[in-house]
Amino acid sequence: MVPQPRPKRPSRGRAELARLRRMKEQELRDSSPPELADLPRDFWDSALLVEPVRKQAISLRVDEDVLAWFKQKGPRYQSRINAVLRSYMNSCARRQG
Predict the structure, then answer these.
(1) pLDDT tens across 31-70, in order?
(2) Given Cys at both, which of 10, 64, 86, 92 links 14, Cβ 3.0 to 4.6 Å?
(3) DSSP, residue by residue, 41-70
(4) Angle at 52 between CA 83 and CA 65, to 5 degrees
(5) How far apart are CA 65 and CA 71, in angstroms?
(6) 3-state secondary structure of 97
(7) pLDDT tens per residue across span 67-87
(8) What angle do CA 15, 45, 79 make, to 5 degrees?
(9) Angle at 33 between CA 28 and CA 36, to 5 degrees
(10) Run of H or E residues at 93
């Protein structure tokens, strides 16, 4: 007998889409993070889809206290560091252009 491969489970952080589709609107609101609680009804009306760009792994040296500060804010600290760098890059590009 050949063992069957186990079904793939979503990785941590992946949405369980079937469960989300079954949830009522109030349940979704109640489980949303506080920063999304008071969004205006038309908040998403002018939203644009932003495709993620490919990331490149690098080695980067940063001050210990800077890294500690980003890490203390919780998981995905590398993504937050990237967002800060992107914000700086966009700011510089606006000033130059």
Answers:
(1) 888 888 788 889 889 988 888 888 999 999 999 999 999 9
(2) 10
(3) TTTTTT----PPPPP--------HHHHHHH
(4) 25
(5) 10
(6) coil
(7) 999 999 999 999 999 999 999
(8) 45
(9) 85
(10) helix 77-96
